[in-house]
Design brief:
3-stranded antiparallel β-sheet, 5-stranded mixed β-sheet, 14 helices, alpha+beta
Length: 399
């Protein structure tokens, strides 16, 4: 494979729920392609499911932020990559720093912990549905439901005042936007870190039972690390689930046969959530890694220092792993999908996201069985301009 074979990351979609078709064309030729990054660097793009799992599980591929490259151009300087990771931002670290921080945070996100949280999440969902009913239709489902549910949940889990939601939602959206200026991105990062640093310092003086308070009381992490981990969990924790809820509702409304199956059999909620995670894969531009040494891969050699982008949307539509992958099937066994990544950096909040979605979808359609779009689908706007794919607004009616 020569430098002349290098491509830019395909980003142009032909349909709102499907990855760019050019990704499938690349995958059909080879699970590994030469990729040209916006800064001119020549690296690699992984589009096959099996190869994606191998790369994400291989410690020879580093997650350190100072070596990462964004495969899509941003208007501003990259706020996450090209410099040493902020304290606590474990997604941008390798072991042993990553291991030490993740081990401490993981205690709050076990399946057992999610079971204990389930009644509270059900209350939050029910309260938002009641507020929707009282407000009346039409309304924007993103603003009324998809965004506040995960925001309320992550605030309660971390111990962050929900009254500050407008600030952290704005800062998070700015950080993940490709159109934010360098000044806007820097200000958003500084504001988020300052807010969490002040909160972590307060928790260290008066620890509570929430996650930030627990971290402050046990003394295993510094205030800076607690603040950084809190900023990461707060920003990514509500953005990703909000995107999955909004897009998931739209996907079900757009596939009434699949929605009918879920409504008729609420026991399908678990498999339906896994299928929606696979089908939508909102982390749309992939996971960046850097080779620490020469690594033979798919008949090629990835040289030390070269960047590798693992396309999660392409891997989750690989027909060698998921038959008829472009079809939404809420009864499909979608286990093994990579919507949360894979390996040591697999999303630490995946159990929380799953629990929220398993509760939210049946509750929403149970409360509003006549839920439907209030505008033509062609008028909807999607988030091709942000790291997490989403529908920006989702006007719905039910009366």
């Amino acid at each position: 494979m020569t430098t002349h074979d290098a491509v830019s990351l395909p980003t142009l979609r032909a349909a709102p729920f499907d990855p760019p078709p050019a990704l499938a064309e690349l995958r059909a030729r080879s699970p590994l392609s030469r990729l040209r990054y916006p800064d001119g660097h020549l690296g690699w793009l992984v589009t096959g499911h099996d190869l994606a799992r191998k790369v994400l599980a291989d410690p020879r591929f580093s997650a350190r932020s100072e070596w990462k490259r964004n495969p899509v151009a941003r208007r501003s300087l990259e706020p996450f990559y090209g410099a040493k990771a902020l304290p606590g931002w474990l997604v941008d670290m390798d072991p042993p720093q990553h291991t030490r921080i993740r081990r401490r945070l993981a205690r709050a996100f076990t399946a057992h912990r999610m079971r204990t949280l389930r009644p509270r999440i059900e209350q939050i969902v029910s309260r938002q549905l009641t507020a929707m009913a009282e407000a009346g239709d039409p309304l924007d489902l993103v603003a009324a439901f998809a965004l506040p549910v995960p925001s309320l949940v992550i605030c309660e889990l971390l111990g962050v005042p929900y009254s500050r939601r407008a600030d952290f939602q704005r800062d998070s959206a700015t950080l993940f936007s490709l159109d934010a200026t360098a000044e806007q991105a820097a200000r958003a990062m500084d504001d988020l870190q300052t807010f969490l640093t002040e909160l972590a310092a307060q928790k260290s003086r008066r620890p509570g039972e929430d996650l930030l308070g627990t971290l402050a009381s046990d003394g295993e992490l510094s205030v800076a690390e607690i603040a950084g981990a809190g900023a990461l969990l707060l920003s990514a924790g509500h953005e990703t689930t909000a995107g999955s809820l909004g897009l998931g509702v739209l996907a079900l409304l757009s596939h009434p046969d699949q929605l009918a199956r879920l409504v008729e059999d609420p026991g399908l909620a678990d498999t339906a959530v896994e299928e929606l995670l696979r089908y939508l894969t909102i982390f749309q531009f992939g996971v960046p890694r850097s080779a620490l040494e020469d690594v033979p891969l798919a008949g090629e050699t990835v040289r030390a220092g070269e960047s590798v982008t693992v396309s999660l949307p392409a891997a989750n539509r690989d027909p060698l792993r998921f038959p008829d992958p472009d079809r939404l099937d809420v009864g499909r066994n979608a286990s093994g999908h990579l919507a949360f990544g894979h390996g040591m950096h697999q999303c630490i909040g995946q159990n929380l996201a799953r629990t929220e979605m398993r509760i939210a979808f049946p509750a929403l359609f149970g409360r509003f069985p006549r839920l439907r779009l209030a505008v033509p689908a062609q008028r909807l706007s999607f988030g091709g301009d942000t790291g997490f794919y989403c529908v920006h607004r989702l006007p719905v009616s039910w009366s």
